[in-house]
Amino acid sequence: MSTVAVIDYGMGNLRSVCKALEHVAPAARVFLTADPDALVRADRIVFPGQGAIGGCISELDRLGLRAAVLQGMNTKPFLGICLGLQALYAYSEEGGGTAGLAVLPGRVALFPHERMHNPADGQILKVPHMGWNQVHQVAAHPLWRGIAQDSRFYFVHSYYADAGDRGQVMGITEYGVRFTSAAGRENIFAVQFHPEKSQHAGLVLLGNFMSWDGSA
Amino acid sequence: MGLSKRIIPCLDVDNGRVVKGVRFVDIRDAGDPVEIARRYDQQGADEITFLDITASSDNRQTMVHVVEAMAEQVFIPLTVGGGIRQVGDVRRMLVAGADKVAINTAAVANPEFVREASGHFGSQCIVVAIDAKQVKSGDNPCWEVFTHGGRRGTGIDAVGWAVRMAEYGAGEILLTSMDRDGTRDGFDLALVRAVCDAVTIPVIASGGVGNLDHLVDGILKGHADAVLAASIFHFGEYTVGDAKRRLAECGIEVRL
After folding, report:
1. For B79-89, what is each residue's pLDDT tens digit?
2. Tens digits of per-residue pLDDT, B89-110?
3. Residue B118 domain-assigned (yes or no)
C-alpha cells in the first residue's frame, strides 16, 4: 500500500489536501505528520502551505524537518503546493527578505500591483491574486497527463515565483506579470495553485501524482 | 488569458441546516448544506460561502461538522462566516477545512482582531464582511457600516472602513448592501464601485441579485472581482452554468 506524508507544520488548510488525496487514491494511506522519520519512511511527500514564508521555514527548522524534507526531495515523488513551491527557491522578498531551501533556481517577489493593470479594461489588478487562472504548460510532464492546456486552477497568493529563463519551469500564468505557476526537476513537482481546491483539473493532477514514479 | 471573475452561491445555515429553502427538483434533502454545495460545485460554482446564522454557541460546533463533511466531498474553496469572534474561531474553521473565514461584527468591535487573525493565518484566509446602508444620497453618496445582521448602526463610513480593513490585513472584502439585500432589484452599483475602486484587494459584491444581468452589472459597472447570490440559484431559476454563460456572452472571463 502506498503511503503519502503530508507535512504538518501548523499552517494552512491541511485537511483539504489530505481529503483530496484520499479521494483520488482511496487505497493509499494519507497521513499528516511532523515526524522526520515518518517523512523518511513514506513513499511520497506533499509539502503544502499557506501564510507567511518566514513562519513556514522557521517552523520546519523548529520541528527538525529540514533534513528529512531535503532528503525526500532527492529520493521520492515530492509535491509542493503554494508556499511549498515558494519555499523551494533561495530567496523571497516576503518579511523583509527570507531565505528558502534553494532547491530550484529563481526567487520569489511581491506582485507589483501599482504597476499591474488588466489589459482588457485598464482596471488595476487586485492583490492577493485570488481566484481561477489559467496555467500554460510549458513542458510535458506525467503530472499534466489528462489536463487540457491552459486549464484553470484556483490561486490565492501575494508573492510569486520568478524563475526567469533558468529552466525547470513546468507552467506559467499571467497576472500583471508572467510568473512560474508550476516548476520541478526529477522527482520534484511544485505548483503555486491549490490542486485540492481546483475541482476536476486539480483532482486529476493529484491522481497523477499518486501514480507517479518520480521520473520526468 | 487571465484571472476569471468568480460566481459564489451563498447558503445561510442555522444549526447545521440550510434555511431560506432551496428548491432543486432532484435533491434528496434540501436542508443539507453539503448536498447543496455539491450541486453548485457540479454546476461550476467557483467558491461556496456558508453563513452561519446560528444564535447559540452550542450549535456552532455543528457548523464545524458541516465544514468537515464539505471538505471531504467538495474540492473548491469554502468561506465560512458568522460568529467568528476570536483567533480560536478562525483556527477551528480552518482546521475543519474552510479556506477563508468572514469576519463582520467582531471586526467593528475590535479592528485589531483582523490584524491578529491575518498575522496568524495569512491575509489569504481573512475576509472582512461589510453590511452597508446608504445614509446620504445625491452627488456625494455615503454608506454606513451596520453590524449584528444589519440591525445596529456604527456611524462608520463603509468605503473608509473597507480601506482600513485592507490596511489591517484583510485579504478580501465581502460587501453587502442592506438596502438591496432580498429585494432582487440588483446590486447597489454606486456602493460596489466606490468600494472596489478604493481598495487594492478583491471585493465580492452581494445583496439584491434578481437576474443574470445584475451579475454582469456588478462586474462591468461595479468593478467587482466576484459576485455572490443566493435566491436566484436556490429557487432553481438559474444554474451557476447559466450565469457563467451570460457573463461570457458579455465578454467577461469566466471558468466554464
Report:
1. 999 999 999 99
2. 999 999 899 999 999 999 999 9
3. yes
Instruction: Give the structural domain span for B243.
Output: 6-249
Q: Is A196 a catalytic residue?
A: yes
Contacts B223 to A, Cβ<8 Å: 123
- Whole-number Å distance between alpha carbons of B2 and B255: 10
A194 is catalytic: yes
Let me know how many helices (H) and strands (E) chain B has, helices first: 10, 11
Q: Which of B76, B199, B201 sits opposite A128 (nearest CB)?
A: B201
Number of domains present in the structure of chain B: 1
Is the model's pLDDT at B9 over the cut of 90?
yes
Work out the angle at residue B175's Cα, subtended by the Cα atoms of residues B115 and B215, and round it to the nearest 5 degrees.
140
* Contact status of A129 with chain B (Cβ, < 8 Å): yes
- Domain assignment of residue B256, yes or no: no
CATH for B127: 3.20.20.70
Provide the shortest C-alpha distance from residue A31 to chain B (in Å).
15
Check: complex ipTM more than 0.90: yes
Given pLDDT bands bounded at 50, 70 and 90, which one contains residue A119?
A: confident
Cβ of A152 and B76 within 8 Å?
no
Distance (Å) from the C-alpha of residue B8 to the closest C-alpha of chain A? Answer: 11
State the catalytic residue, choosing from B14, B131, B217, B225: B131
Q: Is A82 a catalytic residue?
A: yes
Please choose, from the candidates A55, B197, B190, the residue with its C-alpha nearest in 3D space to the C-alpha of residue B207: B190
Q: Using CB atoms within 10 A of its CB, is residue B31 exposed (0-12), middle (13-18) or buried (19+)? A: middle
Kindly report, residue by residue over B141-199, the tens digit of the pLDDT.
Answer: 999 999 987 889 999 999 999 999 999 999 999 999 999 998 999 999 999 999 999 99
Mention every residue, 6+ apart, whose C-beta is less than 8 A from residue B251: A120
Query: Architecture of A3-94+105-210 per CATH?
Result: 3-Layer(aba) Sandwich (3.40)
Residue A69 identity (one-letter amino acid): V
Give me the residue from B200, B251, B255 closest to A132, CB to CB: B255
User: Does residue B140 belong to any structural domain of this protein?
Assistant: yes
